[in-house]
Amino acid sequence: MRFAADLDQHPNAGLSALRVGESLRRQLQHESADLSILFVTPAHAEHFEDIVQSFRKELPTRHLLGCTAESVVGRDREVEGGPAISAWAASLPGVDVQTFHAKFEQTPDGVLSDGLPTAEDLPGQVRTVLLFGDPYTCPARFLIDRLADDLPGIPLLGGMASGASNPGEHRLVRDDEITNFGGVGAVLSGPIKVRSVVSQGCRPVGRPFVITRSEKNVMFELGGRPALERLRETFAELPDKQRAIFQRGPHIGMAMNEYQDHFDRGDFLISSVIGADEDDGAVAVGAMVRTGQTIQFHVRDAESADEDLRSMLSPLKTIPEGKGRGALLFTCNGRGTRMFEQPHHDAAVVQSMIGPIPMAGLFAQGELGPVAGRNHIHGFTASLAIFEPEFELPPVR
């Protein structure tokens, strides 16, 4: 199993695609690829078709996915402006790769979908679903629910295309098909291990509360007292530095397993606080909540995001030697230098913690990844997929 990745910033789109394709072919030792992925910045968007053709001419590949993106990731770099192509390729012996183009239509009776994979269409041992969607025409939450029914427990990883300001401007590719709507993806089955890391960039503050009265996305009471009162109570207990961060944008974490005695990173699904009502003490958040659910307030800033990403990657630092591995990084377009003082933050942290590893990625308008075994679409998150051969250690004698 071999993986390759590179990033090219030549202003000529066709030449850039040839250069990055040639680099990947050399890294794969001149083998063809079973799966390749392209991320292209808006400066090259009008040449997307030429890029696909040039890339495939230089690197024969059975299956191809990709999309346009506001910014791209290549190895340990993040390009946040100007022309750039980031590419990733894998030789996956024994792995079944099935690509799809999912299309959606809103009707009076709800959303209709076509093209999504089902268990009946696939071989056994499904390992992961990769997906890149157009944020205007790919309803992520509906798609997540459908896959939860058809492929329960299978991680969904990827992100929404970014960088366009109007419907129809994003570009997606699936094999030989280029489109501007829906979602393109691949299902990987067989002897491949896929590890997922979802760093939501927050740290919990205060103590957990149980929602004792709520409606839709509004919390009226936490632990039998007005939710706004609990929020102010948490704020008052924070150190001065964290107060300033909390005041700029408090978040809540919704516990994914309410039967735990202790909660830590990775135990919460994060959502932002979007409003409050002085009259009834209610607090509104950006997700549906329910009475009986456990929540905890969180803060998010550059320091928290850096600390969280390192913490989530730390268990993966010990890597068996000789294993071919590759990674895809889906980071929010609100991260990068919009969040961190230094450029290349997320890519550099991944490489310093678990690299060197062939890695490509995009800055997404919504990142896909599992938290506590359930798939979600996130914001301000770094979602990482790590691919490696499946193997078993010999028994101890």
Written overview of the protein:
With 397 residues, this protein is α+β, with helices and mostly antiparallel strands. It folds into two domains: 2-199 and 306-389, no CATH class; 202-300, no CATH class. The chain is built from seven helices and 27 strands. The chain is globular and about 65 Å long.
Helical content (DSSP H or I, runs of 4+): 10-25%
Average pLDDT reading: 93
Question: Which structural class is indicated by helix and strand composition?
Answer: alpha+beta
Using only C-alpha atoms, the radius of gyration works out to 22 Å
Tally the beta strands: 27
The poorly predicted ranges are 393-397
How are the strands of the largest sheet arranged?
8-7-13-9-10-25-26
- How many separate domains make up the residues? 2
Q: What share of the residues does DSSP label as strand, in percent?
A: 35-45%
Main beta sheet: strand number and arrangement? 7 strands, mixed
Q: Kindly, what is the distance between the CA atoms of the first and last residues, rounded to a whole number of angstroms?
A: 29 Å
Shape: globular
Number of helices: 7
Domain FIST C-domain: 227-371
Membrane topology: Multi-pass membrane protein
Organism: Caulifigura coniformis
Pfam families: FIST (PF08495), FIST_C (PF10442)
What attributes does this structure have?
single chain; 397 residues; disordered C terminus; globular; 2 domains; six-stranded mixed beta sheet; seven-stranded mixed beta sheet; alpha+beta
